[in-house]
């Protein structure tokens, strides 16, 4: 039967009220109830570091994005280089299966990632999202030990205060007490938790804590497949910074006790902390490293798990000599083409200077927050600024206060924080700081 392939023509744009009504009835937003209780803002378009709203909110139609769209849009929005990469690839092919086939964008991206990653990470598994890359990393580690005839090594160790994603294995290594996935305690696999690392990127390492890490790894070594942590910055678990010495201590303990080390750089990768990868602050190479978020510059969902030859060869010499994982959209040509362009754009520019400039602006602009009632800590590292409060944030009030200052922020738990795009101007960094102070005062 012939199909009618007539184009339906352009759709009539929905009015904001109609769109919000449909959104409330049908769209389930992250970390929210269904139906939603708070109407989201309708974004009409975005360019540079600004979000254009369909209607005014707190007297504003445009807001400076202080969040890089959950830390991913490091080049801002509507960037001509990334637009061109997407358009060019779209004209060739938007997707082709990765099983039995390959293509230039994926190969180029994998080679680029190997070239810039900590030395020794030579193999790249492309995944759909950051959380899935953690699932892949865990599967790599479990299968490595099973292939080595040590199937009892099947637990994971981490430290408290972490966050690694919303799928099953990542949830099991998020903090089970007070974390976002506390609901699933008793259902998730039971992992090994060390104490949270002492705070302070520049603080002298606590030798008692270093000893605690070594002892915890040693005590559970026979059952541990891997240790997995976020290096230097614990992201959605609390935006805490810690000394790189603790990452080095974990590398040493893992080497001593024959345990694999996985570093989750989904949030910290591609310059956010002032180093291209946070592992560089510690001078270590993990056995597996997870990347995501900024990988495509916020254009498309894509992630990667990189591993050493030791891990890859260990799996490939096993009874089942394949990594049995293959997402439908693995190595998607459109996503990998944009990712390759995004990483190239980062490397060709002065990303380190831009992050340093933003860091200086955040330090200066947030300094007055130390005198605000309810603010217990002010911390900045790279292009990350955090105001720690002594109480949970009233998110709606804080967001309104920030919007009144012309900035989009999304505080959570007991924090007001910003992670701006690297192209954010000094003037806009100053506006972000003012908005953070206003949000902390109102929230």
Placed side by side, the strands forming the largest sheet appear as 4-12-11-10-7-5-6
Mean pLDDT: 95
Structural class: alpha/beta
What is the CATH architecture descriptor of the largest domain? Answer: 3-Layer(aba) Sandwich
Going by CATH, the homologous superfamily of the largest domain would be: Type I PLP-dependent aspartate aminotransferase-like (Major domain)
CATH fold name of the largest domain, please?
A: Aspartate Aminotransferase, domain 2
Oligomer: single chain
Range of helix content? 25-40%
Task: Write a structural description.
With 443 residues, this protein is of the alpha/beta class. It has two domains: 16-78 and 350-442, Aspartate Aminotransferase, domain 1 (Alpha-Beta Complex), CATH 3.90.1150; 83-348, Type I PLP-dependent aspartate aminotransferase-like (Major domain) (Aspartate Aminotransferase, domain 2, 3-Layer(aba) Sandwich), CATH 3.40.640.10. The protein contains 14 helices and 16 strands. The protein has a seven-stranded mixed sheet, with helices on both faces. Strands 1-2-3-15 form a four-stranded mixed sheet. β10, α9 and β11 (288-291) form a beta-alpha-beta unit. α12 crosses α14 (426-442) and α13 runs antiparallel to α14 (426-442). The protein is globular. The model is unreliable at 1-5 (pLDDT under 50).
């Amino acid at each position: 039967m012939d199909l009618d392939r007539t184009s339906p023509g352009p759709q009539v744009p929905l009015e904001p009220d109609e769109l919000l009504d449909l959104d409330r009835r049908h769209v389930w937003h992250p970390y929210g109830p269904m139906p939603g209780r708070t109407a989201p803002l309708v974004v009409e378009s975005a360019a540079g570091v600004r979000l254009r709203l369909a209607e005014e909110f707190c007297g504003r139609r445009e807001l400076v994005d202080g969040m890089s769209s959950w830390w991913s849009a490091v080049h801002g929005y509507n960037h001509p280089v990334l637009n061109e990469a997407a358009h060019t690839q779209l004209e060739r092919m938007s997707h082709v299966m990765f099983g039995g086939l390959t293509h230039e964008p994926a190969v180029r991206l994998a080679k680029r990632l190997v070239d810039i990653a900590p030395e020794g990470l030579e193999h790249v598994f492309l995944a759909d999202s950051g959380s899935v890359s953690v699932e892949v990393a865990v599967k790599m580690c479990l299968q490595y030990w099973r292939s080595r005839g040590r199937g009892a090594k099947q637990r994971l160790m981490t430290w408290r205060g972490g966050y690694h994603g919303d799928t099953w294995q990542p949830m099991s290594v998020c903090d089970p007490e007070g974390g976002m996935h506390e609901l699933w305690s008793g259902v998730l696999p039971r992992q090994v938790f060390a104490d949270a690392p002492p705070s302070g990127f520049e603080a002298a390492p606590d030798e008692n804590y270093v000893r605690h890490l070594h002892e915890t790894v040693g005590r559970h070594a026979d059952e541990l497949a891997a240790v997995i942590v976020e290096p230097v910055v614990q992201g959605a678990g609390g935006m805490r910074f810690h000394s790189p010495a603790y990452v080095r201590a974990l590398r040493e303990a893992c080497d001593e006790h024959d345990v694999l080390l996985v570093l989750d750089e989904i949030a910290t990768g591609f310059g956010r902390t002032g180093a291209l990868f946070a592992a560089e602050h510690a001078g270590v190479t993990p056995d597996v490293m997870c990347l995501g978020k900024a990988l495509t510059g916020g254009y498309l969902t894509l992630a990667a798990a990189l591993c050493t030859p030791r891990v890859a060869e260990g799996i490939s010499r096993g009874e089942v000599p394949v990594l049995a994982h293959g997402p439908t959209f693995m190595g998607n040509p459109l996503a990998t083409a944009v990712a390759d362009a995004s990483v190239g754009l980062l490397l060709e520019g002065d990303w380190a200077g831009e992050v340093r400039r933003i860091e200086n602006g955040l330090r200066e602009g947030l300094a007055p927050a130390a005198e605000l009632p309810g603010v217990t800590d002010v911390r900045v590292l790279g292009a990350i600024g955090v105001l720690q409060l002594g109480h949970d944030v009233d998110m709606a009030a804080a967001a309104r206060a920030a919007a009144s200052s012309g900035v989009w922020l999304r505080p959570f738990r007991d924090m007001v924080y910003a992670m701006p795009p690297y192209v954010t101007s000094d003037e806009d960094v100053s506006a972000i700081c003012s908005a953070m102070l206003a949000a902390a005062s109102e929230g």
